[in-house]
Structure formats: structure tokens, C-alpha cells
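Note to self: the last two entries modelled the partners one at a time, which told us nothing about the interface. This time every component goes in together.
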Amino acid sequence: MKNNTPLVKRFRQSQLFWPLIALSLLLIVDAIFAPNFFKIGIVQGHLYGNLIDVVNNAAPLMLVAIGMTLVIATAGVDLSVGAVIAISAAMGTVLINPALGNELITNDILAANATNTPLWLVVVANLAAGTLCGVWNGFLVSRGKIQPMVATLILMVAGRGIAQLITNGQIMTVYYKPYWWFGNGFILGLPVSMYIVAIVFVLAWLLIRKTSIGLFIEIVGTNSRAAYYSGISEKNVKLIAYTFCGFCSAVAGLILSSYIHGCDANNIGLLYELDAILAVVIGGTLMSGGRFSLLASVIGALIIWTFTITMYTFGVPANALLAGRAVLVLIVILLYSDYSRRLINRLIERKGQTHGATN
Amino acid sequence: MVQRIKTFISGNAPLLTTIVIFIIVYIIGGQLYPSMQKPQVFFNLFINNASLLIISIGLTTVILTKGIDLSVAGVIAMISAASAALLKAGWSAGVVIPLMLLIGIAFGFIMGCIIHYLKVEPFIVTLMGLFFARGMAYIITLSSLTITNDTYRYLALTKLHIPFFKSAYLYIPSLIGPILLLVTFYLLKYTRFGRTVYAIGNNEQSACLMGLPVARTKIIVYSYGGLCSAIGGIVFSISLLSGYGGYAPGMELDAIASVVIGGTLLSGGVGNVIGTLFGVLINGTIVSILQFNGTLSSWWTRIGVGLLTLIFIGIQSLFYMRKKHS
Amino acid sequence: MVENNQEIIKMEKIYKSFPGVQALENVDFCLKQGEIHALVGENGAGKSTLIKVMTGVERHDSGHIFFEGEEITIRSPQHAQIVGISTVYQEVNLCDYLTVAENLLLGREPHNHFGIDWKAMNERAKHILADLGIHIDVTRPLGYFSTAIQQITAIARALEITSAKVLILDEPTSSLDIHETEQIFRVMKKLKNDGVGIIFITHFIDQIYEISDQITILRNGKLVGSYETNNLPRLSLISKMIGRNLSDYDDMKATKLETAKNIDKEPFFVANSLGLQDAITPFDLTLHAGEVVGFAGLLGSGRTEIARLLFGIDQPDQGTVTFDHTKIKEFSPIASIERGVGLCPEDRKREGIAGDLTIRENIILAIQARMGWFKYISLQKQYELANHYIKLLNISTPSPDQPVKNLSGGNQQKVILARWLATNPRLLILDEPTRGIDVGAKAEIQKLVLLLAEEGKSIIFISSELEEVLRTSHRIVVLRDKKKIIEFTEEVSEQKIMQSIAGGD
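The predicted structure of the combined assembly is written out below.
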């Protein structure tokens, strides 16, 4: 045991260890069975290929997972992220609709590559709508003292109704090309969504590492009474976590609606709450709160999408993919259960010991 | 006597609140739309929400153990698709129905085992169940399959006339929910299994130390939830006479909302299936009111149910906060 | 009357080791029918390991266990229950929302042809409790009742469901007041007469002498000896337990007198008829810099309530507080910390430490909270602080990055103290800082209290142990029935304080 270099041991105990192992296993499977998976080509100055697809598709989930991590770390959960995605996407796409403010609505106007609302305002409204949802959740949980699962359930139930209310029940289609950029554009050959994720990630990282919020979140998640008794405003900590989660969902809504050039309030961001929780759990943050790692959750989101794209390349039909996802969850469960962890840990340790003995 | 009534009221306050809310909502509906006063409208609640009632009953027992079952609507879709496919292949209903029930039980059983023995959050495991069930349904059929089986048609189309109410009727499948309700009520109140369910929801470790069969009970509860979902799926496919993987989208949310409105605490240990019945009825009444209105769009249902959930949760937390203080 | 000499359980030459620790070494133990047997020792002496071996939670490495004369191996807690060994823990392991009757009888509930016979069950539960001298409405949820009633229900369950012959009571009285303790004792005496062997684990020396027949003392995993209670004077019990001379404490008296000279004449904190309905009757209190004020009184006498009020966890509904001649308007922990007040709460685990986080993070918690969200203390500074206090308070840990839950109770308490010391408080409220920690750590903490007073801090010291209060406090406030009774500024005898605690004329 002592012969283990501290670095190896630290890495093994770090939260990143298991997610990275899982991701590499997936990639190894790809490397063996679908070598094309790693092919990256250049078309019109953009990189393309499965790996780029993974990143581009996973971007909204990575964003939601970042927000969800903070919420789960406070020993909460946000079930409304999918609905919030719908609300913010609905907000953006409705505002962008060039028919808005026109008395006479014709097909030409509707399908025109134009808008009456400046793009920045659309983005701000989009983000504001989602953030406001986060504030609502945060208030219910912190001030209303309602169990997080129940409090966010309310918006989960009502959210898509609200989104439909915003779009007046229409499926919105966006013809205004600049809006497509967020989900489909490229900067220096890489998808725009990647940069957005990077920005939000850095923002979150600064928030938790350069201020005391990260520590406070962990304390609140571990023992909220102790936090209160130590003079930490546990209410505000929770409020911030849920608000930030709402913000992240809003950004995800922006990217998703841009990616599909529109918004169907009933389907956009469907099951995202579950995928996001799954990503966080894969990342090794406990549902009971406390210690968390943003990077691990982001890797968790990547795992989910690597798996999905892998299934596509294997020719699994999209509809059957849900069952494939179930298999993924099952694998995660098996890998993460205490029982198998203990088993694997013991194996590694034994190996380390025999290794040490021969030294 | 007054003392006893007082104890009864304070002991059953959440349930009574739910019932009162239901009556109020229904009366408001009747005032706004006089045609809602017809008895048939009331019975329609049972016809239209037959599957919702059935899965909510199963979900209630699961939630009482501090668990959750997100797979309920997925199982409905899977069962409807599977039974439609088998019936189309010429199997008889007498074989298909028991088989579907077995599948439901097995499904719940496996989830229960994973939850208990691998100690994984029920949330995650039943999420897997949801994915799996919907995925299987789509693997079975990508489009809606019509059911032409005679037994199914008979069950779907036979009207049962209600005594004392002229021209009011129910269908046979709409009776299954209420029967299941009584069975579940009995199980929860008058058997050791039922009381163990409550004990586990209260404090699983205590239940274990009290020597109660925690593992068995938890697994049975999830199996029972699976059974209820399967029955719900059969009822669903009978009422639509078809099967498809996209059926009952998001119904797990309606079911959870109904259970919560019915006064069952999501934190487990407190609640009642009778309350769940009224939760489902409230949900159905709101839908009916919107239908009678005609001008209000369908999304108001979701917003309405959400608001009601909020209100009810507010009442609950007030009630339990006060109780804790006293 | 059962013949009371039969041995029920006998353990011989028990050895048990955990990685790095010899938890039990050659320990013998014997419990007879109808005997109340006190098992005592410091924390880490091996009491709980012995109990775990006896109840099948852990398997001993070597040695023999005899039950009613026959050698047995106890495989699991369930097996122990079947054999007839039941344990009732301090934290009652029953279900709050279920009725008392269910909690008592679930698992062996009466049935009729229909199912559970609720009427018969309630009747029987009522009967069983009435036998133990408890008359309550058994159809109410267990959570409605006091901890004592809950514990008695647990005891009754152990006897009824598993027909226990050996009953292990693990610190049953540690959160009970005197009346509740008496209730438990009455039940214990009754069971003793019925021939049940009772193992009684407690920190309260008085209670050992009040109720036990036999005392077995463990120290560092070894058996010190087993004595008849009547033949073992208190002083020798204590010296056998801690294996150290009480002279450690003797020099404290001098220190205390020394520090008394430095007390400020002028109070900085004045509470005027401060009170809260149902929690504490309005009281006056002044605090001076450099002074230790001890709160003596029983549990539920209002000690903790005052602490919560002064720290702002509960808001007073009458009276005023002036702090440095300014009237306080806002009562909340955050505002209190702003003023330089700290509280080490009574329930260390639930209100004090954040177990999964490291010592460092736990220590910087309050000071970081005071500095706000955006002035994050640099990691280097955090380690400096943590290492400083680990050394100052003698916290035994390999590194400041250890999770706090891995520490012993005494060290956890020191971490919480360090958390407050880091904020350099003017008033420190210590609510039972020595509860559940070993005697050595207790002495350290008591000395520390005087040291802090010498530095000019004002300290409120709350403890169940009167001796401790006497030893550390310059002034003693006595509380009874949620009311401040009297304040002793002069040296007083234990006897006198006890009299005012007990009340009467």
C-alpha cells in the first residue's frame, strides 16, 4: 500500500477516476468495433465526425449537468430542468418570430429570415425566463421549506403548460438565420456550443472556487443545521444553486432551440431532468449532497452522449435507443453500487500489494 | 364522542382536506357549467382516468416506503404495445392478459431487487425502468397497432348501467381501479405487509431492527407497483383498443401529482390510497372543467394541476410543521 | 420471585481486534438473572465493542460465550434477538408515525379472520404498558410522546416480541430529565424483579449507584474488574475508570482564582427580562469580559433554551438585550456572529460538525461565513489556520485533510471550538461541550475554557455535570423548570447548588 505513489492513489480516490474509466471503456469499445468513430474530417473549414457530434450534442446536457451538480450538492434535486428548457426556448423563439407586432400575418412574413426583436434581447429574454424559473424553485425550497423533489415537481408538471401558453400552443419554427448559430455555428473549426459550455463551466468554476460559495454549498449539503449555526445563510446558498441551475437550463434551451431551428414545447428537452441527474450520478456526486465535482458531471454527460452516438453508429434505431440508455443506467448502477466498488477496490489494492512485494 | 371526532379529524386532516378540495372543485365546475351536474360526468371521471387511478394506487404503495416509481407510464406503453402485438399474432386474450401481468410483476420485482440489494436510489433504477419499457415498446412496434380481439372489444364496449342513476354507465375496465383500491386499502391497513410498508417509509433502519421483513416487503411493493402498471396498461389498451410506445406520455407526472394531492408524503410513511383516489378525481375534474369550457386550451390542465400540487404541498407542510411544534 | 443467582450470559477470554487496534483483550463478563449490571468505561474502553460482540454485530476473534450454560455463537443481531438478547439504544429505533400499539406489537400483532385486529392490538398494548406503570393513549403516533415513553415502548417491545432474557440499555437516560429517568428506573426495577438481566451503560455516576447491583469496568480494551456496587466507593470507581489521578483537576482551582482577577467590572452584555413563551421565563443576565458563567440545571430546565435565545436561533418575544450599550434589534446566528458571539451546540453531530468535510473546512467555516461570499480565504491561509488550531487545541489527527467524522468525539468538539476561536469571539456559549467524550479530553476542554477567559473572552459554560460547572465557573446561574432561579457569585458548595436545582423550601 505504501508503495503506491501518492499521485496514483489520489487519482484513484478522486471523483474523476470512475467517470474517466467508464468513458475510456466506452471509447475502447468504439476503437475495437467501430474504428471510424474516431475519424475527424474537415468540411468547409469545420471539423466534423462522431467525436464532434458527441460534444455538440452533449453540450446542452453538460450545461444542465453543471447546474444540477450544484443543486444536488446542496442535498436537493431539480426535476424541472426539462420544463425550464422548454420555457426558455419558447420565450426565445416567440420573441424572434417576425410576425410579432405585425397586424397582418402572412406566410412570407412568418418564414422570412428576419426578426423585429434584436438578437441580444432574445437571448437575454431567453436566459431571464429560465433564471426566473430557477429563482422560483429556489424560493420554494429555501423560503417555502418544501422538499426539493416536491418543490421542483410543481414546475415540472406545470412548466410545459407554461411553455405552451407562451407559444400559444404552436410549434415554433425559426427562420432567422443568426439564431441558428448558437447550436450549429463554428468558431475556429469547433462548434459554438462547445465554447458556450466552456464559458459557463469557467463561470461556475470561478463561482465555486474563487468565492466561498463552493464551500458553503458542500457544508449545506453535508449538514445544513451546522451551516446555519455557523452563520451561513443556508437559504441564500440554496437560492443561488437553484437559480444557477435555472440559468444553465436556459442556456441549454437556447442551444437546443437554435440547433433544431425552433421549439416544440411538448418535446424540447424531454427527459433532460433524468439525463442530467444520471450525468451527475455517473460523475460520482452523491444524491445525498455534500462533495461534488463539476468536471466529473460534465464527463458524465459526455459518457451519456458517447454511448448514444456509439449506438447510432452501430445502427441501433433511434426509438430503440431508449432501451439502450436503460442498459447504460444498469451498467452505471452495477459499477457504482457499494458492493462492486468494494470488490474492485479490493482487487486493485491486492494488486498493489503484490506489486509492492516484488519491489 | 366530541373528543373522538376531534381525534379523527386531526388524525385524518390531510385526507379530509383532499376530499373537501375535490368537492369544492366539483361544485365550482357544476356552477360554471351546469351540464357538469349530470351524474354521468362524475362517472366519466372513472372511465377517463381508469389507468391513472390504477397506476397511482401502485405508486402510492411505493411512495409510502419512501421510494418512487417513474416507470409506471413506460410500463403502460410497453404492455399496450406488447399485448397488441401478441393479439395481432393470434394469441388469445386469456393467455395474453396473464402473461402481461406476469411481465409487470417481473419488471417490478427486478427493479425492487436492484433497489434493495444494490442500494441504488429508486429514482435512478425506475428511471432505467422507464427508458427500458419505452424502448421495448418502440422495438415491438414503431407505429400504433390496432386491437381487433373479440374479448378486448367486448370489454371495451360493454356498458354497465348504474342502479339509481338513469342512463349513467361505466365500462367494465373502469371497475378495476376501485376494486384494486379496496384490495390495496385492505392490504395496507389490515396486514402485516401493509404496516411494514408504513414502517419502512418511516425509518427503514428501525423497521429492520424491529425484525420486520424489510427486504421482502420492499421487493413485493415494487412488484406490486409493476403489477398495477401492467393492469393499467391492459386497461389502457382496452380503452383505446390499440397499443403504442408513445402512449401515456408524462403520465408518471400526473400519477405523482395525484398521489401528492391525495395527501401521501413523498418522504414516505404517511398517506393513504383513499386520498389517492381523490387526487386522481381532482386531476380528472380539472380536465373536465377545461373540456366543458372549450375555449381554454389543453395546457391549462398542466398549469392547473401544477398549481393545485403547489397549494396542497403548502397545506401539507403547514400541517406537519404545526404538528411538529405541538 | 425468580431465583436470582442463575448466570444468563457469560463471556470468557474475549479477544477482538480491528486493524491497528486491540479493541478487547482477555475480557470476561458475566450477567446474572435479575441483575442490573452497569458497564462503565471511558470512550474507547471497549464497552461498545463488547456489546457488539454480545449482540452479534461483530464476531470476536477468540474466547467463549455461554448463554444459560451452553456455549453459543451469535451470528447476527437477529440471531441475538431470537436467543433472547435485546438492545435498546439511546436513539430509539422505532417509527414515529406509527401508533404506540403498532410500535409495540408489529411483527406479532393479533389477527382475526379478517386481518390485523386493531382493537385487540390496542387493548394488548395498553395492558403491556399499564403493567410497566405507563398509562397513555396507545392509538396515538409514537412521535407525540416524550423520549422516555418512546424508550419504554422500545423496552416493552423487546420483552414482548422477543421475550428477552438479557436487556441491553445503551445510554437510555442521557437525554432524559429526572422524572423521565425515574420512569425508566421504575421499569428497570420491575424487570429485575421478573428475572431479566439488564446491562446498563451510562455516563452518569449517580445513576449507577442508584440502580445497579454490579459494576464492570473496562479500560483500553481490558477488564479492570467487576465489583458489587455496594462495595465500590465512587472515588475508586472513577480512578479505576480513568486510571489517572484526579490531581489533574486540582491545579484548576488556582487558575480559576487567578483568572477571576481579570474580570471586567463593566458588563458588555446585558439582557433585561428576556423571554420566550413556552421556552424560558423572562430572565436578567449580565456578562463580563474574562468571566466564565456556568449554567447548572437539569436537562429541560431551560439551559439550552437560553443558549439558543442568546445566539439568535430562537427570537425572544419579550425583553431587551444591550450589547456594548447598544440595543440589539436583530436576533439571528448571522447577526450574533457579527457581534462576536459563538455557540458550540449541544447536539454535536447534528448541529455542529459537517462530518464528510475535512477538519480544515470545518475550522474555517464560521470565519469564512463572517467574511462573506466573495472574500474567499486562500487555501494557504486555510491550512495555516487549521494547523494552528490543531496544534493549539491538541487535536489528534494525521492531517487537516481528514474528514471530521473519522475523529473521536472529543476531537470533534475541539474542531468546533477551533471554528469559533478562529473568529476571535467575545462571547462563547458552550452547550454541553464535554458530553459523550472521554475524561481526558474533558479535562483539556475545561482547562481551555479558563485559558480563554484569561484572554478576556466571556464564556457561558453549560454542563450536566455539576462538578464541571463548579470547577470552571466564576459565577453560576441555576435554572429549574425553564426559569432562572438564582445566581451564585461566591464560591458555593455542590450541596447548595443541588438544593436550588432540586427546589422545594
